[in-house]
Amino acid sequence: MLTSSVFGRMIDSIDACPWGAVAGRHAHLSDVAPEPPPLYTPEERRRRDATRWTLVQGVLAPVQFLVFLVSLGLVLRYLATGDGLAAATGSIVVKTCVLYAIMITGAIWEREVFGRYLFAPAFFWEDVFSILVLSLHTAYLAALFTDTLEPRQLMLLALAAYAAYVLNATQFVMKLRAARRQEAASRRGWTGGQTHGRGLGDPGVVGQGTVGRGTVGRGTVGQGTVGLSK
Q1: Residue 123 per-residue DSSP state
Q2: CB–CB of 64/71 below 8 Å?
Q3: DSSP SS3 for 20
């Protein structure tokens, strides 16, 4: 004797209607992609908002991005014309110093928010790529002060470091956008909960906060967006 579930599977296998609701079919819960975990727990978000290092990152992040834009222009100018070697070299050194500052303060920020200096689960792969960015910038300084490479080779190495920096920035921008969507969804859930008489203690309606951390900055909206830092 056929059970209703077996009969339903038989109908599904021969029903070619593209509109499942019209055909009486329903999506299974297992077919729905699970929602990604929140970037911050409520306690981590509280610590993020309380620490002064969030503000430090928010200031340093756009500063580094501006230095990057100026330096990139000077490097490309030298490669195209052969002029301005000193200016291009100085700008790369300044960019690298700002990167170190953001890496150090960012590690302190991560320690205060997540309990570890690097590779917190929320930013693990961003941190991995941040180390690559820092390594390339450091390689430039080492080659510069030891006269290992010719000026043009040094500029090409700087461009490789800058390309890695931009890719790392993209990682953080994407994470920021995802966190904003999570926060917006949480707010909608909170509003719906209030409409239906649910309180703040209802599960699933806690705001997740924003992003920022890594070579692109941490903890605030200014970090992980245009204010690329670490």
Answers
A1: G
A2: no
A3: helix
The pair of three-digit structure tokens given for residue 56, joined into one six-digit string: 């430090």
The H or E element spanning position 10 is helix 4-14
pTM value is 0.69
CA distances (Å), 217 to each of 20, 82, 120, 138, in order? 45, 33, 14, 19
Domain ranges of the chain: 42-177
Distance CA 116, CA 112 (A): 7
Measure the CA–CA gap between 218 and 106, rounded to whole angstroms.
Answer: 7
Cα–Cα distance between 19 and 30 in angstroms, integer? 19
Reported as a single tens digit per residue, the pLDDT across 59-111 is 998 999 999 999 999 999 999 999 999 999 999 999 999 999 999 999 999 99
- Report how far residue 208's alpha carbon sits from residue 42's, in angstroms, rounded to the nearest whole number: 7
CA distances from residue 196 to 185, 193, 202 in whole angstroms, order as listed = 16, 5, 11
| pLDDT tens per residue, range 20-67 | 444 455 545 455 556 667 788 889 989 999 999 999 988 998 999 999
